[in-house]
């Protein structure tokens, strides 16, 4: 048998069940993430342990990327009596506002070991490029834009 030693954790768990992601009046729980730039793309990783890939939904609308995931209760056989239940269940959601310099049409998503990784490329028109300068003596010189 498992013994609970932290009474405050139990109070937090009960409050989460009563007010949190379990009820109809709840708001989605945020999920932890890391984001960084790597070359010509941004990489965003979300921690979603114990969530099946088919329970993850990604949407982009007007430069807003929404990630929703649902952790469902595990199916238990008859006669199972829960002793400790600390893993939150329900809907988790996070929104990211994508700048105009990102190419939302070419986002790549992968899911491995409970981590959802998104690769968001920088739009071609936002990348630095060379611009040719015409001069009166017809020598062309290129400068960085």
Automatic annotation (TrEMBL):
Matching InterPro entries: A-crystallin/Hsp20_dom, HSP20-like_chaperone, Small_HSP
SUPFAM superfamilies named among the record's database cross-references: HSP20-like chaperones
The family this protein is said to belong to: Belongs to the small heat shock protein (HSP20) family.
PROSITE patterns the record matches: SHSP
Span of domain SHSP: 24-137
Protein name: HSP20 family protein
Top-level taxonomic group: Bacteria
Pfam families assigned: HSP20
């Amino acid at each position: 048998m498992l013994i609970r030693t932290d009474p405050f954790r139990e109070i937090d768990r009960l409050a989460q069940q009563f007010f949190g992601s379990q009820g109809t009046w709840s708001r989605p729980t945020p999920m932890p993430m890391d984001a960084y730039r790597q070359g010509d793309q941004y990489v965003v990783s979300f921690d979603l342990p114990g969530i099946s890939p088919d329970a993850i939904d990604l949407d982009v609308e007007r430069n807003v990327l929404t990630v929703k995931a649902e952790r469902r209760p595990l199916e238990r056989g008859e006669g199972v009596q829960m002793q400790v239940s600390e893993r939150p269940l329900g809907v988790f959601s996070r929104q990211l506002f994508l700048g105009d310099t990102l190419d939302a049409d070419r986002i790549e998503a992968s899911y491995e070991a409970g981590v959802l990784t998104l690769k968001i490329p920088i739009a071609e028109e936002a990348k630095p490029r060379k611009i040719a300068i015409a001069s009166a003596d017809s020598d062309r010189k290129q400068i960085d834009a």
